[in-house]
């Protein structure tokens, strides 16, 4: 039987209803622990001789269905679910590094990932350096003898700069370095980093995978089972697990991921066109823009431009914030991938932990706005932006 299309896998993969009393929807195993028929079976379960469930921190049927589905969607051998995106990031790094190791990062990462890297450096001597990664030469210059991981976001949050995954992988393989890609902004529907050669892909499943703003979760998918097995004891002992109910919500969210992503992308294209032509707007950063400096990368490794847009305006920090305050339908919030259109000010919100000088190096300015385009009628999104622009003082400049 030929491989199913992603739209079908999002709904069916990893679940067989006949194994669960014919239930069309995967059951919610809302339990903390599991019983053993005999003491001997309990012993076998703990020793690994039996594959039965023991305790939901170690494994749960509902969570396992989600992990199986995500592994297939991202074309990996195994997946692990976590209680948050940052639990996924931290467990991934903890399983790959030791004190004194070195990490190379894309020039721009999520604020909390930056905070974690700072903690690793200050407390455990794990150093990190940022790199544009525009050329292989730039990577070779920053890689050290003790570099164990290359960690990238693409698109980068919030500047929407793209990283050529295959180019990074080519260098990493020569140096025997693990490549980790944060794929949150794309979801498995728009981009599959493992198929491009990277070793580990992770998501804040809170965003597009959940899609409804009602769950906090993270997912890691590994190219090999060995990489996933190395993470299992870290997840077990640090405890950043996913609850069964959150897994159930994510399975429900995945069923509509394809149709949601199509609408997110279509709306984003319309909003981009509006922003691109408005006199208040200075620059727009969107991977679907044919004039975007990384557009060729977008065409190579993404199916569409995504649902997130960043833009700068002709104004100060205060005037930029004023735009947000005048919005009526669009909500000021720091997440993305929800049904609602969300907007935020990266310099003082998601990336406020990043020092000002480093923000500037990353391309995060006081007049930058990040918008996650939702599923509303695009005309209503544009109308709200239009009236907010009209009511600001920037137009008087």
TrEMBL record:
<dbReference type="Pfam" id="PF01053">
    <property type="entry name" value="Cys_Met_Meta_PP"/>
</dbReference>
<dbReference type="GO" id="GO:0018826">
    <property type="term" value="F:methionine gamma-lyase activity"/>
</dbReference>
<comment type="similarity">
    <text>Belongs to the trans-sulfuration enzymes family. L-methionine gamma-lyase subfamily.</text>
</comment>
<dbReference type="InterPro" id="IPR015421">
    <property type="entry name" value="PyrdxlP-dep_Trfase_major"/>
</dbReference>
<dbReference type="GO" id="GO:0047982">
    <property type="term" value="F:homocysteine desulfhydrase activity"/>
</dbReference>
<protein>
    <recommendedName>
        <fullName>L-methionine gamma-lyase</fullName>
        <ecNumber>4.4.1.11</ecNumber>
        <ecNumber>4.4.1.2</ecNumber>
    </recommendedName>
</protein>
<dbReference type="GO" id="GO:0030170">
    <property type="term" value="F:pyridoxal phosphate binding"/>
</dbReference>
<dbReference type="InterPro" id="IPR006237">
    <property type="entry name" value="L-Met_gamma_lys"/>
</dbReference>
<dbReference type="InterPro" id="IPR000277">
    <property type="entry name" value="Cys/Met-Metab_PyrdxlP-dep_enz"/>
</dbReference>
<feature type="modified residue" description="N6-(pyridoxal phosphate)lysine">
    <location>
        <position position="207"/>
    </location>
</feature>
<dbReference type="InterPro" id="IPR015424">
    <property type="entry name" value="PyrdxlP-dep_Trfase"/>
</dbReference>
<keyword id="KW-0456">Lyase</keyword>
<dbReference type="GO" id="GO:0019346">
    <property type="term" value="P:transsulfuration"/>
</dbReference>
<dbReference type="GO" id="GO:0005737">
    <property type="term" value="C:cytoplasm"/>
</dbReference>
<dbReference type="GO" id="GO:0009086">
    <property type="term" value="P:methionine biosynthetic process"/>
</dbReference>
<keyword id="KW-0663">Pyridoxal phosphate</keyword>
<dbReference type="InterPro" id="IPR054542">
    <property type="entry name" value="Cys_met_metab_PP"/>
</dbReference>
<dbReference type="InterPro" id="IPR015422">
    <property type="entry name" value="PyrdxlP-dep_Trfase_small"/>
</dbReference>
């Amino acid at each position: 039987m030929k491989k199913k299309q992603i739209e079908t896998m999002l709904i069916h993969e990893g679940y067989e209803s006949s194994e669960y009393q014919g239930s069309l929807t995967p059951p919610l195993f809302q339990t903390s622990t599991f019983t053993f028929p005999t003491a001997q079976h309990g012993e076998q379960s703990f020793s690994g001789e039996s594959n039965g469930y023991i305790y939901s921190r170690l494994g749960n049927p509902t969570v396992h269905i989600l992990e199986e589905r995500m592994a297939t969607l991202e074309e990996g051998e195994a997946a692990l679910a976590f209680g948050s995106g940052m639990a996924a990031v931290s467990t991934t790094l903890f399983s790959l590094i030791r004190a004194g190791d070195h990490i190379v990062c894309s020039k721009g990462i999520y604020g909390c990932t930056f905070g974690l890297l700072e903690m690793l450096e200050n407390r455990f001597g794990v150093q990190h350096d940022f790199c544009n990664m525009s050329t292989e030469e730039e990577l070779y210059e920053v890689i050290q003898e003790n570099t164990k991981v290359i960690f990238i976001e693409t698109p980068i949050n919030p500047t929407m700069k793209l990283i050529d995954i295959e180019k990074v992988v080519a260098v990493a393989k020569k140096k025997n370095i693990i490549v980790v890609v944060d794929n949150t902004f794309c979801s498995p529907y728009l981009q599959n980093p493992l198929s491009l050669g990277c070793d580990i892909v992770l998501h804040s499943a809170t965003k597009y995978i959940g899609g409804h703003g009602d769950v906090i979760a993270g997912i890691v998918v590994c190219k090999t089972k060995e990489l996933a097995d190395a993470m299992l004891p870290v997840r077990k002992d640090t405890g950043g697990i996913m609850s069964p109910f959150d897994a159930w919500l994510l399975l429900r969210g995945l069923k509509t991921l394809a149709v949601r992503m199509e609408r997110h992308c279509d709306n984003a294209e319309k909003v981009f066109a509006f922003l691109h032509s408005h006199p208040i707007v200075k620059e727009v950063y969107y991977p679907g823009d044919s004039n975007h400096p990384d557009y060729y990368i977008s065409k190579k490794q993404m199916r569409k431009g995504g649902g997130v847009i960043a833009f700068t305006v002709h104004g100060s920090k205060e005037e930029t914030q004023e735009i947000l305050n005048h919005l009526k339908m669009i909500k000021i919030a720091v997440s993305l991938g929800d049904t609602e259109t969300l907007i935020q000010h990266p310099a003082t919100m998601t990336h406020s932990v990043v020092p000002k000088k480093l923000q500037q190096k990353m391309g995060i300015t006081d007049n930058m706005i990040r918008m996650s385009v939702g599923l509303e009628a695009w005309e209503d999104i544009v109308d709200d932006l239009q009236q907010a622009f009209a009511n600001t003082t920037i137009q008087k400049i």
